[in-house]
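Hello,

Following up on my earlier ticket. Below are the two sequence lines again, exactly as submitted.
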Amino acid sequence: MIAEAGLAALWFAAALAALQLVLAAAAVARGQEALVGGVRPVAILQGGFAAAAMAALIAVFLASDMSVRVVVENSAAAKPWIYKFAGAWGNHEGSMLLWVTILGLAGGAVAILERRLDARTLIATLGAQAALALGFYAFLLFSSNPFDRVSPAPPDGLGLNPLLQDPGLAFHPPTLYVGYVGISVAFSFAVGALVTGQVGPAFAKAMRPWVLAAWIFLTIGITAGSYWAYYELGWGGWWFWDPVENASLMPWLAATALLHSVTVLATRDGLRAWTVMLAVVAFSMSMIGTFLVRSGILTSVHAFAVDPRRGAFILALLALYIGGALALFGARIGTVRAGTTFEPVSREGGLVINNLLLSVILGVVLIGTLYPLVAASFGVQLSVGPPFFNKAAGPIALALVVVMAAGPLIRWRRDDAGQLTGRLTWPIAATCFAAAALVAFGPIPVLPTIGLSLAAGLAVASILPVIRRHPLRTPLFTWGMVVAHLGIAVSLAGMASDSAFTKETLLAVTVGQPARVGPFTVRLDGIKPVIGEGWSALEARLSATRDDDLTVLRPQSRFFSTPPTSTSESAIATFWDGQLYTVLGQPDANGRWQLRLWWKPFVTLIWLGGALVALGGALSLIGRWRRERRARMRDYWA
Amino acid sequence: MTAKNQRLTLVLLALAAMVGAGLLALSALRDQASFFYAPSDARRDGLPLGREVRLGGMVQAGSIVRAADGVTIRFVVGDGLATTPVTFRGIAPDLFRERSGVVAEGHFNPDGSFTATNLLAKHDEKYMPPQVAGAMHETKTLTK
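Thanks for your patience. The regenerated structure is below:
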């Protein structure tokens, strides 16, 4: 019953999206702005029905209704409730339903909250959002129906992929999707503004909070996903340049560029066409990511099933939307007049370089991600891994850090290069000091040395804009920028420290035998069997000591019954100055156990930095919102 | 500078950056793309020395030997036509076993052996890397 109700809700949502598209098209074509009153409720209702369908799928999973195909294939009655709940999107159909639900809800949110945009552009925006939703509803209904029944119903399901059986599954996909799909709003705004020709500061100010909100979620999603991969995969790495990771990084890069160019448009009325283009590119990256992950063209823990028809369907949608948006851009950009000009040495100029460098990184990552697929279609099997991305994207990213340090210290409109160098004295001093210290106290590889030195410079540079200013009188969005830029410095320091100072030990030990890794002595105290929900494991007890401080770690080797697989669960101890990462391997005939131990100094800074970046975004969003509310109040009283 | 000129300058800059990105990426790709080899490919086309590649095939029956240090294993990968001895230092994946598919990441040595830095084992059918599936398929057709 619940499954049928869910399917009905999905059809209703699709029908409402069609209605929304027709109404919006009619309103824009005939210039009937009054219709905005009609389009808004339809958009809200559409989001509501999509959410109802998602709720129905979650209910079916929680009830372990084994007559529904996705439940049979991806769940089991004996699973803990959290994995039944999160398992609703731990499969192809459910994750696409979550995708389109967020698309619908984002459209609904625009309909409820957006007050700044002129009525005509708003209607066109909601129309574009409906067009996007309609395609993905069709994808769900015709090729990925999550409410498909099986008859007869089997007694139990096949279970969830053990790698996904982690609390992270409850948070990581929804957060990432809110960011991923939230960028659709920027895309729809761009399409709306192209239709009506209203590309200017008002449009930029309206679009900015939506981009910012999506970007915050994307940042949190990527940071959390990186930490999840770090502790779950047991390889000690935090970023693998896996195509699926790239699929989330590419929209983030585009959204970061957009966030900065939209500021130029809002503040100085420059970069009009570029900003619109970036909005189209950003969501195109989200859709390409969805295609890569959901078409089954890639193999990874994220790719749930291989069905070529689905890939073709998403590819067709991709071509339709990206092609359509680019065609509209080509046809209408002539009507958007060039914005205000600016001097090369100015905040605008700095932001242009920021955008160029981010775009180049985006291009490199895109080529590296798609190249194996293109090669495969010519019959050549190859894979592009970390060496390529580190070599090609690393130096540009470091150049970006330099620009990032200088950018906030440049004045809008026009600045003097000599004065700017003067303002950069302290950051340059910090960089040189760090570099000298690193070279003097133990030579480490070149790239981490540069990374750590630049991180020091960037950290100093990023707090300069608030130094000698009254903290409470400094606008909250300035604080947001400072915190976000500082977050990048912190994260960069963590990455460089991890790659320069990590110590690794790999050996086989008997019970009682000590092993050394970095400043720690790790002893295997014993191995015992443990039982959990749906799995059994062999658990090692390791006592790690450093300067007489004892820490106990319990890495496991886990065996799951449904489906029958095994995973190794690393154990990580966090200290103020880094993490001790331990993995239990296999036993051998002599009673020895394989242990893999890493001491990773300051590796936690990577994710702490990511969290700071997201916090900076949040501060900025709150700051803009408060300023606007105050302005509205003033207008109201005046 | 007029608005039109500035726009043109920016467009040219953006194009230059994009072309630069493309060239940079392609030149790096030439050196860094890790190609997939089956043991018979390596014998036919010559050894790809000095670069990271992937070697895929079946772990030969009775070939896994564990070294005295407890963390190094030696085994032989075959594709029905040729075999390659592989040395791997690390924790092998749980599904790594004889008569089962494997993809080894690492490099060839001049003597024709392979040093692996990472092993990807065939999980269940759902999560099988396409390269392994391809190699398996070829192996099956060849041994029939």
